[in-house]
Amino acid sequence: MPAETPGSDDRPDSNGAGPAGEPARDAPEHPRGQRVVLVTGASRGLGRALAKALAAAGDHCVLTARTVGALEELDDEIVAAGGARPTLVPFDLRDGDKIDQLGAALYQRFGRLDGLAACAGILGRLSPVGHLPAKTWNEAFAVNTTANQRLLRSLDPLLRRSEAGRALFVTDAQVASATAYWSLYAASKAALEVLVRCYAHEVAKFGVKANLACPPPMATTLRRQAFPGEDQATLADPQAVAARLLPLLAADCSVNGEIVPVAP
User: Fold this and answer.
1) In angstroms, how far is the first alpha carbon of the chain from the final one?
2) Which residue, 161, 180, 163, 177, is CA-closest to 106?
3) Residue 1 DSSP class
4) 78-115, pLDDT tens digit by residue?
5) How many other C-beta atoms can be found within 10 angstroms of the C-beta atom of residue 222?
6) pTM, 2 dp
7) So what's the architecture of 36-261 in CATH?
8) Strand order, beta sheet including 115-118
9) Beta strand residue intervals within 34-148, DSSP E
């Protein structure tokens, strides 16, 4: 299951980034040649694990999530492990205006974006189709689908400015299985799959590559919400899954427009 969007918190972070989608003003500039990768849903689950893996590989991470404290803890862990201090950008992906501002802010700071790892997602509700409230439906699509379209719209020019722009999104096996009561989550991920595959064909001639990863069931909060009685010790470790995703964000990635299964 993909990583979840964590709880909200609109306080400024320790590096001075406010909730308006603007990177921390005093965050260090990335060294020449270092890849700049944006990770959404970075405070928990797969997003957090992938941020740590990217930093360990030498990338400069721009980390977004709603929970400021969790981002600050991740910042400390990355620095303690020897990675470059990331840029923290706390905001809510349901706020489309802030996503629209993000591309301009990153352009001013870095001039390009080498990677987008869109890990944020929410379960919504497991429910019969006829019992789903409109608000619940709209919120899940806002985070799982619409926010990713707006991210691509905002960040596409920056990915094209990279010598090897890479975009990676997270889908789920529920799309193919169409299990009862999973309509909301599966439908929002199915829409995401079509969106990303179309985008991949549109940007292929510019050297940008976009793919979807389909990870195995992982020990995350989102998975626990869906299966509260499950023993999470039997599930895949998000850190192990994150390590397998690194090649899809690397400059030498040759895959484009694919849904890539990830082994446990």
Assistant:
1) 12
2) 161
3) -
4) 999 999 999 999 999 999 999 999 999 999 999 999 99
5) 21
6) 0.88
7) 3-Layer(aba) Sandwich (3.40)
8) 87-90, 60-65, 36-40, 115-118, 166-170, 209-214, 259-261
9) 36-40, 60-65, 87-90, 115-118
